[in-house]
Amino acid sequence: MTETTVQTEQFAELVRAGGGGSLARAAALDLRSGDVSAPARVAALCLSAAVTNPERLVETYDGLADGWVGRAPMADPIVGAGAPGDVPGDLWDAIWALVFDPDAGRDPADITVRTAALAGLLPSGFNDRLASMALRYPGVADAATSGPPPRFSLDDLARCPRDSLAGNLHSLVVDDGFDLEVLDRDALALTDLPHPLGYLNVRILQCHDVWHEVAGYQTTGLHEVGISGFQMGQFGHHYSSMFLGVVLTKVAFTQPFEGTGFLLDTILSAYAHGRETPPLIGVTWEEIWDRPVEEIRASLGVRPFESPYPPGILEDLRSA
Prior knowledge:
By secondary structure, this protein is mostly helical. The protein is globular. The longest helix is centred in the last third of the chain and has 21 residues, at about 255-275. The protein has one domain (about 5-320). It contains 16 helices and no strands.
């Protein structure tokens, strides 16, 4: 048995065991003190919350924030009943393929599609657990009553002032080559998911770049990590928890200390930002397209993200 096999099996046991706030807080404190086991423990707790025990997602990240930053987000607890479940072998195969692929992450579109595909390998009934937890987040139940949101129209965006939210989004799509929806909602069969997941996943696909603009996240590698924490804090976004769990696992096996602490600084500051920002999931953006972003922030009570590092630091490091 190779050393890597032993390490992955030990890590899988940590994921299956799961944990919660107290274990997360202890792991974060141990990471600060230089404990060599801490990066794997942190990553395993985050991956467990994504693939075995979604009821403990908020408890886990609140605990990490308490241990790493020194305080949990100022928001009500969000908890549910549920024990860690099984992780199918094909899901582990896909996770390890991402973790040990040296090129994973270089192409944002590729890692987005590959991470999204992990959800299709989760055990039967897992989506029902996700749906039950999603309804516990502020604003979700009311927002999801509207049914599947209609697609955005590029023509509608083009009719708005250039310095408006719609104008900014139009520029991202036309000038920078972004998509009006990050992934194809029909190809992913999102409307087949249990209520309210269908609504949530469709809405965030089309609002991801809107939230970038309104919440103050730039379109850089570091801020894509950050906005995943923000989305997770807002409504427990499952893709975001999967993405962050996989990224932390990848770093735990490749750059355990320098990488894990660096990521936690960004993830936890953005997660707290999401938990402490009024719910955005129910905002009808189409009714305020023509307003400047600063005006929208003021009306919704949104402060822009305070990045712990320069937003383009990952790109700068790659080009150095």
